[in-house]
């Protein structure tokens, strides 16, 4: 099976930075879109950033200019560089990937288990 392993979460002061990473492993033929989502307590999960296999990115206004998503296709890894962090960025961050397995003909969405990001002074 395919697994997504996240790392890089933690506690940071307002204005600080964190870099999240998510590596996909397993029976992978190709990966299409990869992305990051977050969910704060009592709130709905929301999109943070996406990146296509060709490198096209998309961000909501809430993080635009502060967060940068990137990927290393050779390592099947997606990154999220978070700068100028605010308390409202506090949430569990989940990575997501659309992956085609060997012998498969369609892409399926996979999720990581989440990593906690806490922005507090």
Write the layout of secondary structure elements.
Elements: E1 3-7, E2 10-12, E3 18-25, E4 30-39, E5 46-51, E6 57-58, E7 67-72, E8 77-82, E9 91-100, E10 108-111, E11 115-119
Parallel strand pairs: 2-11
Antiparallel strand pairs: 1-3, 3-8, 4-5, 4-9, 5-6, 7-8, 9-10, 9-11
Descriptive account of the structure:
With 121 residues, the chain is an all-beta fold. Helices cover 0% and strands 54% of the residues. Strands 2, 4, 5, 6, 9, 10 and 11 form a 7-stranded mixed sheet that branches. It has a 4-stranded antiparallel sheet with strand order 1-3-8-7, with no helix packed on it. It is elongated, with a radius of gyration of 14 Å. The termini are far apart.
Low-confidence stretches are none
Determine Rg (CA atoms, Å).
Answer: 14 Å
H/E series: EEEEEEEEEEE
What is the strand tally? 11
Q: Helices and strands: which structural class?
A: mainly beta
What is the tally of helical segments?
0
Defining key terms:
mainly beta; four-stranded antiparallel beta sheet
Produce a short descriptive summary:
The protein has 121 residues and is mainly beta.
């Amino acid at each position: 099976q395919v697994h997504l392993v996240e790392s890089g979460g933690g506690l940071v002061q307002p204005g600080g930075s964190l870099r999240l990473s998510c590596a996909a492993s397993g029976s992978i033929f190709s990966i299409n879109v990869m992305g990051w989502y977050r969910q704060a307590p009592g709130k709905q999960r929301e999109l943070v950033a996406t990146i296509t296999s060709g490198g096209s990115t998309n961000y909501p206004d809430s993080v635009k200019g502060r967060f940068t998503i990137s990927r290393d296709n050779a390592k099947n890894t997606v990154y999220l560089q978070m700068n100028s962090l605010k308390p409202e960025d506090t949430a569990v961050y989940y990575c997501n990937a659309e992956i085609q397995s060997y012998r498969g003909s369609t892409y399926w969405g996979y999720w990581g288990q989440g990593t906690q990001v806490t922005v507090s002074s």
